[in-house]
Design a protein that fits this description.
With about 375 residues, the protein is an alpha/beta fold. The protein is built from 13 helices and 17 strands. The protein has a six-stranded parallel beta sheet with strand order 6-5-2-14-15-16, with helices on both faces. α1 packs across α13 and α6 packs across α8. It is elongated, with a radius of gyration of 24 Å.
Length: about 375
Amino acid sequence: MITRIPARFSRASTATSLLRWFHAETKVNVIPETNYNVVFDIDGVLIKGKQVLPQTHRALGLLQSNNVPYIFLTNGGGVRETDKAEQLSKMFGIHVSPKQLVLSHSPMRELAAKYKDSNVLIVGGNGSNCRRVAEHYGLKHVVTPEEVHAVYPSVCPSSAPEARSIPLAEKYLQNVHLPVEAIMVFHDSVDWGRDLQVMLDALVSRNGFLGTTKSQTELHTTKQSVPLYFSNADLVWSNEFPVPRFAQGTFRTCLERIYKDLTGNDLQYTLYGKPHTTTFKYAESVLNRIAPVHAGPDGVLRKRTVYMIGDNPYADIAGANGYGWNSLLVRTGVFEGEGNHHIHPATAVVDDVEEAVRWILSKEIMKKHEEDPSELRMYRF
C-alpha cells in the first residue's frame, strides 16, 4: 500500500508531531536511500543469556527491509568472529556475516604483528576457544592457564582440572616452559582463582619464567615483568538472572588489588573494548568496509550518521557519546532506570531494541522531511 505523509506536516512541522505520526505506523518497509548506520550491542539488547529477546526479530527486520546497514559491537567474545556469526545467524534466523561483527578482542588483532613470535599467555573462555582466536589472529606461540595447571597441578591446588574428552596436545604443553612475554585476556575467566594466580605468577616472575619470582626489593622497585592487555572493561553484564553479573572488569579489579598489596605498585595494563576509542575506531573501519560513505552531487563525501543501541551507560553510551555517535539506551539489560543516566546520558532512552530502531527511522524521516519535503511524499507501509 502507498501511504502519503499527511499534508499537515509542512517544513515548519515540529519534530515531535512527525515522530509521533511515524511511531503510529507499525509496518514500515521502505524509506529513502540511507546515509546512516546502526550499531548494536548484543547482550542485554538483542539477547539475555541464551534467550533472544522478543523485540529482536522485529528490530532487525525493520532495518533489513529498509536497507539500513548495521553491525554488532559487543564486549563479549571468546570465540572467532566466524563462529560467533554462525551462532547469531542460528539465534536470529537471518544471515549474520563475520564482517558485521566486532567482538571485544577483535581490535587486538593489531597486537599480533608485535607479538607473533612471542610466547603469550591467553586468558579466558572455555576450553581452547581463546587459544584458537589467538592463533587465528596470527599469534604463533600461545599458552593458557589451563595448560599451566595441567603441567603443574600445584599451581592452584584449589582448582580442579577442566574436564576434557580429548587430552591437551603435548605440543601446547611445551609452551608452559617458555617465558611469558605478554598476557592477553580475551574473555571472562571461568576459573578466577587459577587464572589470577597464573597471571600474577607471570607478572612478578623473573623475565617471564613461571615458577620464579623477584626479590622483595625488586617487587617494590621494578615494574611488572610482562605487559598486560584486557579486552573488556565492563564490571557487570546482563544475562537471564534478574540482576547483572560480574564481568571481566571485576576480574581485573581483583588482580589490581592483589598486585598492589603484593608489590606496592599500580598494575599497568592496556584496555580494549567499549567505551575505549580504539574499539570505536575499529568499529568505524568495519562500517566503512560494509557501507562506504558515498559522495553527494557536489562530489563531497556525505557525512555518516551512526546510532549506537546499548544497555550499559558506562560502556555503550559513554563510548558512543565520546566518539561523536548518537546513543540509544534500552531498559532490557544493565540499565533499568526511569529517566536518563545521570553520568552518561543517552541521546534517547527507550524500552527495548524495537522501539530504538523505530526512533531512529522516525528521526531520519524527520530530517529528510525538514531538508526537502518533496523527497518524502510517498512511503510504502
